[in-house]
Amino acid sequence: MGYHAVHALLAAGHCVATLSKPPLPARDLFPPEVNISLGDFNALEDRQIISLFSGCNALVFAAGVDDRVVPRAPAYPFFYEGNVLTTDRAIRLAREAGMRKAVVFSSYFLECDKRWPELRLSEVHPYIRSRKEQAETCLRAAGDDLGVSFLLLPYIFGSMPGRPPLWKPLLKYLDSALPVVFYPEGGSAMVSVDEVAQATVAALERGEPGAMYPVGAEDLTWREWIGRLLKLMGKHKPVLTLPKWMVKLGAWCVHTLHKLRGLESGLNLVPFVELQTRLAYLDGNHTREVLGYLGAPLQDALEATVTASLEPKTPTKDK
After folding, report:
1. Topology of the domain covering 2-164+189-220+280-304
2. Pair type for strands 181-184 and 212-214
3. Domain boundaries, the chain
4. 178: exposed, middle or buried (Cβ count in 10 Å: 0-12, 13-18, 19+)
5. Is the pLDDT higher at 310 or at 168?
């Protein structure tokens, strides 16, 4: 997402500097006018960060740890350090460096937490709790001097040079020899990296302090989403919807395996099924209207994801 945000910011006429962990995933990733710094944010001293931030008037924080990571138990300290403490420090140092605006990439699970309080998402799931505390901590660190807004991001698709998409394992499953695809009921909002980049620019230029902007392009059931991926892959397989009890049984098995290995997921897998099997949709049109950007087609991003995820098959020679 950071890669596409940089290009969108340049196209909007902004000067951009970046900080990310080495190495760069590909040569000529950005044009020469982008000031690229390589390093571990958490390993740098405050004075080094402030020096990097000096002369800039806005920050985009696109780092953090993802719910796909399964750390050692207990999970919350890991997510607290990666999503709460790190972002708190970034906002605090941005404020000290004289910045006036910031945009933090967050999760649409915060919108789900507000919509379905009976699921107690931020209480039950360490990852979602870290995202909620991240937002609260950022606002305290920003004070009245720095306006922070948040992009609540759902399932994201697209590609960039030098890195495979995070969806590669799923696409390998769809590309397997299994004649049927098994998936739960429910669905989700989905968005392209290009639309996230547009929303980033718009939030920096027009976002309100403390505002949370859900970003979505299309709402799809899991069956519709899998069907579109299969079509892009040239596959013709039926998608079989699993009953909720079976999904919970599978989640319990994975949870038990994690526990035996001393691990804990950021999403408490068995109760997470209650969210996974709902229609977690977003009103992306409202955010586009409020922030004033056009959006980008999801289909192009799905195609880019498929193309970047599947290695070309080597043709077999006729004997």
Report:
1. Rossmann fold (3.40.50)
2. unpaired
3. 2-164+189-220+280-304
4. exposed
5. 168
